[in-house]
């Protein structure tokens, strides 16, 4: 195939992904609109008419926003890949700063910044118009811009050296560089998993120990009952940014912390908070986190291998307008290979998302079942899930193909049915 042919195939794949996103959104909007006039039978008496109507409006507004967002990002991607701007920027940059790993990483970093600037207006609109309209936004302008600035500085301090290291590894280790680069990436992620809770999360949020009292006692008893070792239970000021709520763990071993959003504590009764924590402990007990991490590690190993193969092909660069004339040496272009791969990976991984989400939903069912068994009844978790759906205005009637493609969690109805139906309660 000619390089022009390859360029057309890549452009076709990008447009195909975009068309699939549009079709899924369209299906979902039609489904939600069809059901919007009456509370679905399964939720009669559970959710009131006003809240239900608001949840459908929120879903539709988000969907229209996503439509604009995906169109915009496809446009930017096509311009970046096919207008000739990247080859021009690269040769200009190289003319000034040379071809060292430091310069290559700086180029990648600058392209990353330029790309994120193109996304800023939509991100801003999402937070201060869409989320605001439905009463979720609590972020101030100062916090929002501060977050972006902190993100940029973290990228500079952590991301830039990592990029330099990857490019250096290409120089140092030759043909098997992709194995080394993958190893470096894995090591980086492990270090971050240990350091992030201590060094990074506190840059964005305040963490305070859950005060003494009945809730704390209840949660500690649950941890003891399930033999879950936790260093502490912390409350995070999630309300600083949004009224959406969540709970999670951070850290390893005796540094492990249970983190509850203040918004979650305000929304749920104590027994429901216990059920939510039991669900999270379920993820831990069933080893979902290491399994997911292992799968992600295998995925990135494959990614690095594919990248190393593409990086050796002259046509890979020429298809996007890079003139690689003279004696062919892939090492000169490795930064560009990383960039092109980074820009294009989503076009391929998009089609894998139904599989990863299906897998994730299986884990959610398992964690739900664990929580139900530990609590000896389904009611507290069902109560918590209903409230969380209501408070977050979650879509109760997604199109099955849409939720199958995108949802990392089963819908409320699916979770309730599974909790009430399958299997006897262990130990009850
Ligand atoms: Zn879960």
Supply database-style keywords:
428 residues; mainly alpha; 16 helices; 71% helix; globular; binds zinc ion
Description:
The chain is globular and about 70 Å long. It has helices at residues 3-34, 49-82, 85-97, 101-133, 141-173, 177-204, 214-225, 262-267, 270-285, 288-311, 314-318, 334-349, 353-375, 379-391, 400-406, 412-421; strands at residues 207-209, 232-236, 247-250, 257-261. It has 16 helices and four strands. The longest helix has 34 residues, at 49-82. Helix 1 packs antiparallel against helix 2 and helix 4 packs antiparallel against helix 5 (141-173). With 428 residues, the chain is mainly alpha-helical. A four-stranded mixed sheet has the order 1-2-4-3, sandwiched between helices. The structure holds zinc ion. Zinc ion binds next to helix 9 and helix 13.
Number of helices: 16
Global outline: globular
Mean pLDDT: 93
Total beta strands: 4
- Largest sheet descriptor: 4 strands, mixed
Class from helix and strand fractions? mainly alpha
Topology of helices and strands:
Blueprint: H1 3-34, H2 49-82, H3 85-97, H4 101-133, H5 141-173, H6 177-204, E1 207-209, H7 214-225, E2 232-236, E3 247-250, E4 257-261, H8 262-267, H9 270-285, H10 288-311, H11 314-318, H12 334-349, H13 353-375, H14 379-391, H15 400-406, H16 412-421
Parallel strand pairs: 2-4
Antiparallel strand pairs: 1-2, 3-4
Helix pairs in contact: 1-2, 2-4, 4-5, 4-12, 5-6, 6-10, 7-9, 9-13, 9-14, 10-12, 14-16
Give a summary of the structure in a few sentences.
This protein has helices at residues 3-34, 49-82, 85-97, 101-133, 141-173, 177-204, 214-225, 262-267, 270-285, 288-311, 314-318, 334-349, 353-375, 379-391, 400-406, 412-421; strands at residues 207-209, 232-236, 247-250, 257-261.
């Amino acid at each position: 195939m000619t390089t022009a042919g390859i360029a057309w195939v890549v452009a076709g794949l990008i447009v195909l992904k975009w068309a699939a996103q549009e079709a899924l959104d369209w299906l979902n909007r039609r489904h939600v609109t069809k059901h919007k006039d009456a509370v679905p039978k399964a939720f009669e008496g559970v959710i009131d008419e006003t809240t239900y109507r608001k949840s459908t409006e929120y879903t539709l507004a988000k969907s229209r926003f996503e439509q604009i967002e995906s169109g915009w990002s496809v446009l930017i991607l096509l311009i970046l890949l096919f207008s000739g701007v990247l080859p021009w920027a690269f040769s200009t940059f190289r003319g000034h700063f040379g071809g060292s790993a430091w310069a290559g990483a700086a180029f990648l970093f600058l392209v990353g910044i330029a790309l994120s600037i193109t996304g800023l207006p939509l991100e801003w609109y999402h937070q201060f118009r869409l989320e605001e309209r439905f009463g979720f936004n609590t972020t101030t302008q100062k916090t929002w811009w501060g977050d972006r600035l902190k993100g940029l500085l973290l990228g500079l301090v952590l991301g830039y050296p990592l990029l330099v290291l990857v490019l250096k590894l290409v120089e140092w280790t030759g043909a098997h560089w992709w194995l080394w680069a993958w190893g470096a990436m894995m090591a980086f992620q492990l270090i971050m998993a240990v350091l992030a809770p201590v060094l990074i999360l506190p840059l964005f949020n305040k963490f305070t120990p859950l005060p003494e009292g009945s809730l704390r006692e209840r949660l500690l008893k649950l941890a003891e009952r399930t033999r879950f070792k936790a260093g502490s239970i912390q409350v995070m000021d999630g309300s600083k940014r949004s009224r959406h709520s969540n709970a999670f763990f951070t850290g390893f071993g005796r540094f492990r912390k249970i983190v509850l959003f203040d918004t979650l504590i305000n929304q749920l009764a104590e027994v429901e908070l216990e059920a939510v924590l039991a669900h999270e402990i379920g993820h831990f007990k069933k080893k979902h986190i290491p399994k997911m991490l292992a799968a992600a590690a295998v995925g990135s190993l494959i990614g690095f291998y594919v990248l190393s193969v593409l990086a050796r092909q002259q046509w890979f660069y020429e298809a996007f307008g890079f003139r690689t004339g003279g004696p062919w040496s892939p090492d000169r272009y490795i930064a560009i290979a990383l960039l092109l791969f980074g820009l294009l990976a989503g076009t391929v991984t998009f089609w894998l998302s139904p599989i990863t989400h299906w897998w994730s939903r299986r884990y959610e069912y398992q964690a739900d079942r664990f929580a139900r068994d530990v609590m000896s009844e389904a009611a507290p978790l069902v109560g918590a899930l209903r409230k969380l759906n209501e408070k977050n205005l979650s879509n109760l009637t997604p199109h099955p193909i849409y939720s199958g493609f995108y949802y990392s969690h089963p819908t409320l109805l699916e979770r309730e049915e599974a909790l009430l139906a399958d299997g006897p309660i262990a130990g009850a």
